[in-house]
């Protein structure tokens, strides 16, 4: 299947997403900060990135913008997965380069459908 990078500072969220994705045959890389996510995206070459917003240091909006502006990572689709459910947050994430936006808690069916969509399946 696909290689998916989960960037989230919550060990619980990482575990939930990793378990769900691995159950569906995906290889999962993880990062617990925006900075670590950037490094993992460059070295791990994931097919898609699931990016939290609220993290210490480099937040998800900033990390998404850097990924979109970096020639080495610009083609990797980013799906923002966050508790921030305001329309302005969704619009801002898309302006930073995200391909989609999901509000937590994530439904398994919705997440898998959106992954298929950004991966062109």
Structural class: alpha/beta
Helix content: 40-55%
- What is the straight-line distance between the termini? 11 Å
Q: Could you describe the largest sheet, including whether it forms a barrel?
A: 5 strands, parallel
Listing every helix as H and every strand as E from the N terminus to the C terminus, the arrangement reads EHEHEHEHEH
Q: How would the global form be characterised? A: globular
Tally of extended strands?
5
Structure in words:
- The protein contains five helices and five strands; from the N terminus they run E-H-E-H-E-H-E-H-E-H.
- The longest helix has 13 residues, at 11-23.
- The model has no long low-confidence stretch (mean pLDDT 97).
- It is α/β, with parallel strands linked by helices and 121 residues long.
- It has helices at 11-23, 34-44, 60-69, 87-96, 108-118; strands at residues 3-7, 27-31, 48-51, 78-82, 100-103.
- A five-stranded parallel sheet has the order 2-1-3-4-5, with helices on both faces.
- Strand 3 (48-51), helix 3 and strand 4 form a beta-alpha-beta unit.
Brief summary of the model shown:
This protein has helices spanning 11-23, 34-44, 60-69, 87-96, 108-118, and strands spanning 3-7, 27-31, 48-51, 78-82, 100-103.
Quick tags:
single chain, alpha/beta, five-stranded parallel β-sheet, 5 strands, 121 residues, 5 helices
């Amino acid at each position: 299947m696909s290689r998916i990078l989960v960037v989230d500072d919550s060990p619980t969220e990482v575990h939930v997403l990793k378990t769900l994705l691995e159950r569906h045959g995906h290889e999962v890389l993880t990062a617990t900060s925006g900075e670590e996510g950037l490094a993992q995206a460059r070295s791990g070459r994931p097919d898609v990135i699931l990016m939290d917003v609220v993290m210490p240091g480099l937040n998800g909006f900033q990390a998404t913008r850097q990924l979109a502006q970096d020639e080495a990572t610009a083609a990797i689709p980013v799906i923002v997965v966050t508790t921030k459910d305001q329309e302005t947050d969704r619009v801002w994430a898309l302006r930073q380069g995200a391909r989609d936006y999901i509000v937590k808690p994530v439904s398994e069916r919705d997440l898998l459908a959106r992954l298929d969509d950004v991966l062109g399946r």
